[in-house]
Write a structure and sequence with these properties.
This protein has 2 domains: about 5-140, Sufe protein. Chain: A (Alpha-Beta Complex), CATH 3.90.1010.10; about 155-250, GMP Synthetase, Chain A, domain 3 (2-Layer Sandwich). It is about 35% helix and about 20% strand. It contains 8 helices and 6 strands. The strands form 2 sheets. Strands 1-2-3 form a 3-stranded antiparallel sheet. Strands 4-5-6 form a 3-stranded mixed sheet. It is globular, with a radius of gyration of 20 Å. It starts with 11 loop residues before the first helix and ends with a strand.
Length: about 250
């Protein structure tokens, strides 16, 4: 007996992507040539096995940035939703960032404000198949140069759920407990995006109950955005999720 996946367990955002996928379709060699772009194509899975997908990217040959993305998918409805999410996320990023995308990031992209998983647990295999598809498609771009410095575009602030008044009981927490809350928010809301650029961030200290001292790792240590867009993104997240008066200071 084939087990169906109830729509009631899909997030609202996931259901919308499945019902009205915007990125479904293909790009041809002619499409790429007309726009002076590189056509990247990658497929994974098997139709006979029940799940198969193909990604098509139009990539800037000068810096590896994905200008547009489409997909074809055969299989469970969750696979269609995951492919749609992947196409939305890769546009505007380069192929190296695209291949670093994780199943967790795809799921987070389609979570509703409840923060429950967008995909039921039994559909995680479809997310992993999409991640494999991103890797396969990126491989066809390996000869394209990348910009010397780049940063994954942070998510828009209107997509961030603000905790009114801050984390419950924040003022009464001990310093150690506050550090734990900050670490938890960084782990779920910040690191998945920074890791697209092979970077990382750690909490070093909390000074005067409002100054969050952080240390960058990996490529973030030499990226100019570490004191610009990335720093602003981290501070906005912590102010929205933890406490509105927090200031984030990078350890130089």
């Amino acid at each position: 007996m084939i087990k169906t996946f109830p729509w009631a367990r899909y997030s609202r955002k996931l259901a919308m992507r499945i019902e009205n996928p915007y990125c479904v379709g293909i790009f041809s060699v002619e499409d790429a040539t007309e726009r002076h772009l590189h056509l990247a194509k990658g497929s994974v899975g098997e139709i006979q096995a029940g799940n198969f997908l193909v990604f098509y990217w139009l990539v800037d040959p000068e810096d590896g940035v994905i200008i547009d993305a489409r997909f074809q998918a055969f299989g469970n409805s969750a696979l269609v939703g995951a492919c749609e999410a992947a196409c939305e996320l890769v546009i505007g990023k380069n192929y190296d960032q695209a291949r670093r995308m994780s199943a967790e990031l795809l799921d987070r992209h389609l979570q509703d404000k409840s923060k429950l998983p967008a995909f039921p647990e039994e559909t995680f295999a479809h997310l992993n198949l999409v991640v494999d598809g991103l890797e396969r498609t990126a491989e066809s771009c390996s000869g394209i140069p990348l910009a010397e410095t780049y940063v994954a575009p942070p998510i828009a602030m209107h997509d961030i759920e603000v905790v009114e008044g801050g984390f419950p009981g924040w003022q009464e927490l001990t310093a150690k407990q506050k550090m734990g809350v900050i670490e938890s928010v960084l782990e779920t809301e910040v690191r998945p995006y920074i890791e697209l650029d092979a970077g990382g961030v750690e909490v070093v200290d909390l000074v005067n109950e409002k100054e969050v001292i952080i240390a960058y790792k990996g490529s973030c240590t030499s990226c100019h955005s570490a004191t610009g867009a990335t720093l602003s993104f981290i501070q906005q997240i912590l102010r929205a999720k933890v406490f509105p008066d927090l200031d984030v200071i990078p350890q130089i």
